[in-house]
Each structure stands twice: as C-alpha cells, then as structure tokens.
Automatic annotation (TrEMBL):
It comes from the Bacteria. Residues 1-20, 371-407 are annotated as: Disordered. It is found in: Endomembrane system. Keywords: Membrane, Transmembrane, Transmembrane helix. GO terms for cellular component: endomembrane system. Residues 379-395 have a biased composition (Gly residues). The chain crosses the membrane at residues 63-83, 103-121, 128-146, 152-170, 223-248, 287-310, 317-339, 345-367. Its main location: membrane. Residues 59-355 form the HTTM-like domain. It is a multi-pass membrane protein. This is HTTM-like domain-containing protein. The keyword Membrane applies.
Length: 407
C-alpha cells in the first residue's frame, strides 16, 4: 500500500494567527544596548580627556620659551616707557601733573593702596620721581635678563603700577593688561630658560642638604615639581584667557561701529594729527582703497574668531601673523610702540616651545658661523680656521633642544 507523503506546513512565529510581532520589546532592548554603548563611549572619552588634561597641567611646565620672550618684551616695554618719558617725567608724572588734580585727588584707587601709594606719593618731589624712574629701569633690566627674577618681580610690579597711576591721562589699555598678566606671572617660571637664573641653576648642582633660602638664592627647586607645574600652567591658562577676551571683545565692539562695517575704520586714526606720526608712509599705505577695506574687515574677523582660531595649528598661525601685523601698524603708523610691544609680549605664549627653541638654535648657529668666518679671515689663522671648521660641523649638527626639566 502506497502512502502519500505528508505535506509539512511551516509557519513563522510572527505569522502565526493571533500573535502580534514583539516590536516594542525588541525596540526597548535595542535602545538599552545603544544607551549602554553611548555611556561607555562617554566614560572612555571623559577618562581620556581627564588623563590628557591632568598630564598637561601636572606633567611639565608649558610655554616656558614663550614666557621667556614675554619676560624680555615686557622689560623692553618698561624701559622704553621710562626712557621716552624721561625728559618730561616731572611734567607727566611729577609735580607738574598737579594741573590735572591727580596729585590732590587721585582718580585711581591704586594711588591709595599700599605699597603703590609709596610710589604715587613720589609725585610731589621731582627727585623722588627721578629715583622711581631709575629704579624702574634697573629692575626692568634685571627682569629682562632673568637675574633673580623671582625677587625682582615684586619691586618691579610695585614701581610700574605705582608710576602709571600717578597720571591716568597718559595710560592705555596695555597698562591694564600688563598689570593683570604680571599678577599671573608671579605663579609662573618666567626665567626657566634663556635667563641668567637658568644658567645659575645649571652651574650650581642641587644639594639636598641646602636650606630653603640657599636653594631659593641659587634658583634651585624648593617645592615639588608637580606643585610648581600646576601653578605655572594654570597661570598660563589665565593669561591666555585674558588675551582671548581682550581680542574677542574688542572685535565685537568694532563690529558694532559703522566705519568698521564700511571697511574704512583704519583710515581715519592714522591720518589724525595726534596719531599720524608718519604722514608720508600713511599716505602710501592707505593709497589703495581695497587694501584699507581688507585690513579693516580682516582685523574684525580675526579678533572675533581669535579664541577659536587657536584650536588648529594652521588657523593659529594665521591669527598670530594677522595680530602681529595689526600691532606693527599701530606701533609705526600710530606712534604707540610700547602698547604694541606689551600686547605682542603675551601673544608669545601661543607659539609652541619647539618653535621658539628652533628659532633660538638657528640664531645661535648663525652667530657661531659669523664667529668662525671672522676667525678664518684672521692672519695666521690656519689652525684656528681648522678648529673653526670643526666647530662649525658640531654647531651645524645641533638641533632644537626640548624644554629643560621643569622644577
């Protein structure tokens, strides 16, 4: 007897009658899985960000070369301000300023705060004003070369703030920025490199048996490295944030003015009698209208976008080059060199240490090559010339050294 093959009927679970698909359950499980993966990614990213941030803050001192450049330029600004006002010091800052009422009724609160009041009180006597100027110049020289920088900074800060507050009518915004930035510099290591203090640190070997004062006098580490790194790097962040706020707020303020919107704002100031120090050069620079418009609008755009342009190397270079040109124009065409030097001093922290070290190595190599040429040209300098060539090979093979070990 032949049996008929049974026909198997296969039904899927989803197509079974009376049963609906479990989309809600599957969606809930999928959402839960995605949520867990997202949270894990956020935790991993947060942990990595924290580790990098901690390493940046604690690992080593940042912008030590840029801060050394800032130290030198700030000292140049102090010296230049004192020397350019030397012949009129008694009229601008001394007894002659009584006509403005600044001596009897000082408009600045710093004039009544000790120890700045000691300096502002010198305005009553011409000899005392001269002593303030001389002291400021001496302290600025010591600070610029980085000699006893930590000790010199205190009298330098008092002398500078006290002097500029003798007469508010001759102040500008760079004086305010230099005052705020120098407060932050107290917590940094401005003489870590390119200074006499750095040379003294290499000269005197650290002795663990030396007391606190002896170590401080010889510029040796007196605090744990990680502690000084934290203070230094946070101070660098504060200085950078202040500069970003200055540029961004200045750009936004400019953007609200009609001359800046029309592209003609930079034309008028440099043609006035007060600021037009080089009329012929000013006429040449502003002869082409599109260049004036480009400079005006470009200045606003770069200033407003300055904080964001620092995030990428290419845009950071563009921003710094534009800002540098902006301050060169102010220094030359508007007769405000010390304002520009002060602003450029703190802009130096945005340039990487490896870049500054490379430029320093290039300058040293060029200096050595110049010395070798002079030796080789001297009469009877055969042996010296050979030594010079050997020295040239050694000097030419030198590379930009990384920042020294922080302390």
């Amino acid at each position: 007897m032949t049996k008929k093959p049974a026909t198997a009927t296969v039904r899927s679970v989803d197509s079974a009658p009376g049963k609906s698909p479990h989309f809600i359950g599957r969606a809930a499980r999928t959402l839960g899985s995605l949520t867990r993966e997202t949270l894990a990614t956020i935790r991993a990213g947060s942990s990595m960000t924290y580790q990098k941030g901690e390493d940046w803050i604690v690992g080593a001192k940042r912008a030590v070369y840029g801060l050394a450049v800032a130290r030198m330029l700030i000292a140049i600004m102090f010296i230049g301000t004192a020397l350019s006002n030397w012949s009129t010091r008694n009229y601008t800052f001394g007894p002659g300023v009584a006509w403005s009422g600044q001596i009897q009724f000082p408009a600045s609160s710093f004039a009544t705060i000790w120890p700045f009041s000691l300096v502002t009180g010198a305005a009553h006597n011409s000899t005392a004003v001269t002593l303030v100027f001389v002291s400021l110049i001496v302290c600025s020289i010591l600070f610029g070369i980085g000699y006893r920088s930590r000790l010199v900074m205190f009298p330098l800060f008092v002398l500078w703030v006290g002097m500029v507050n003798m007469d508010l009518y001759v102040q500008d915004q760079s004086d305010n920025l230099s005052r705020m930035a120098m407060i932050s510099m107290f917590f940094t290591a401005p003489a870590q490199v390119w200074s006499v203090d750095a040379w003294r640190r290499r000269r005197f070997v650290e002795n663990p048996n030396d007391n606190f004062l002896r170590k401080l006098w010889r510029f040796q580490p007196v605090l744990p490295t990680w502690v000084t790194n934290i203070f230094h790097n946070f101070a660098i962040v504060i200085i950078g944030a202040q500069l970003c706020m200055v540029y961004a707020s200045g750009g936004l303020f400019k953007a609200g003015g009609l001359p800046w919107q029309n592209g003609t704002a930079i034309y008028a100031p440099i043609h006035t009698r007060q600021f037009g120090t080089w009329p012929v050069l000013t006429d040449i620079v502003t002869a082409w209208g599109p260049m004036v418009a480009l400079g005006t609008i470009g200045t606003v755009l770069v200033q407003v976008a300055f904080p964001l342009m620092l995030l990428r190397r290419g845009t950071r270079i563009l921003a710094l080059v534009t800002i540098f040109g902006f301050h060169v124009v102010i220094a030359v065409l508007m007769g405000l060199p010390w304002f520009s030097v002060s602003m450029l001093a703190f802009d130096a922290i945005f340039i990487r240490d490896i870049t500054w070290a490379g430029m320093g190595a290039a300058v040293v190599a060029a200096w050595r090559r110049t010395g070798q040429k002079s030796v080789s040209r001297s009469p009877g300098g055969g042996a010296s010339g050979a030594d010079g060539r050997a020295g040239g090979v050694l000097a030419g093979s030198g590379r930009a050294a990384p920042p020294p070990e922080s302390s």
